[in-house]
Amino acid sequence: MFGESLIISGEKRKPTKRYLTLPISLLIHALAIASLVVVPLMMADSNLPEVKVTNVFVMAPPPPPPPPPPAAKKKSGGEQKATEAKKTESRPVIAGRLVAPIEVPTIIQEEDVGSFGIEGGIEGGVEGGVEGGVIGGVLGGVEGGQLIDDSQQAIRVASVQRPRKIKEVRPVYPQIALTARIQGVVIIEAMTDIYGRVRQARVVSGHPLLNDAALSAIKQWVYEPYILNGIPKPVIFTATVTFTLQNM
To answer: What is the pTM of this model?
Structure first.
């Protein structure tokens, strides 16, 4: 019996699976922490509404009328002097012989050629111009016409006269603002060029986490060119972007 007991006690025991306990515990804790972070973000995305955008255009007082043209003066060509040359007969030129010079007349007659120009013309004008034009203009141009200048000063227009929007890019709600549950209104002042494209924009007021999203969207907007007296003009306008969340 002692021998049997000795043999049984000498058998090797099977190792336990305690080495799996630590990795399984760490995996369970990681899944729990991930669920606490991901679930609120998914709920915020499902409650995200559309961003509201409002445009406000302000009209500046009309520019003062142009000054009246200067008093018309008659263009004077002045008196021109002409000399009466004596007709000479053509003489054959013979090599080696001197030819008598042409005689200079002793009497010079002053001729009055009158005054040139038209009624209503101004000094410095050109032939073919129109009355009321400006010096340096282009022949055949329309009276009162102006060259298109892309660098001209922008004007503010009223809401009833605002140009039609051709392209509008909706602002994207910033992810960091969603996580922090931030909402608010961003007011931006922008300026278009003569082609209706937004070239300048600045934030007037708004939340720091929402300003960049609204500014980036408005810079991509395009309007119809604003025409004033037949000339495209840059336009300054104000846009209001509202970021709101549901179930706040």
So the answer is: 0.42
Alpha-carbon distance of 46 to 25, in angstroms, equals: 32
* Chain position carrying tokens 């039609």: 164
Please identify which residue in the block is written with the tokens 């992810």: 175
Dihedral sign computed on CA atoms, order 119, 121, 125, 126: negative
Q: Of 159, 224, 210, which is closest to residue 51 (Cα–Cα)?
A: 210
Mean pLDDT to the nearest integer, 126-141: 56
CA distance 32 to 109: 118
* CATH homologous superfamily of 49-61+150-243: TonB (3.30.2420.10)
**Using CA atoms, how far apart are residues 220 and 239, in angstroms rounded to an integer?**
13
Q: Mean pLDDT lowest for which of 15-29, 33-47, 138-152? A: 138-152
- Domain boundaries along the sequence of the chain: 49-61+150-243
Between CA 78 and CA 112 the distance in angstroms is 9
Distance CA 172, CA 169 (A): 9
Stretch (H or E) spanning 201 = strand 198-205
Query: Residue 226 above 70 pLDDT?
Result: yes
- Alpha helix (H) residue ranges in 153-248: 175-179, 208-218
Phi then psi dihedrals of residue 211, to 5 deg: -60, -45
Look at the block and give the residue holding tokens 């000399």: 83
Residue 222 has pLDDT above 80, yes or no: yes
Q: Which of 183, 171, 240 is nearest to 212 (CA)?
A: 171
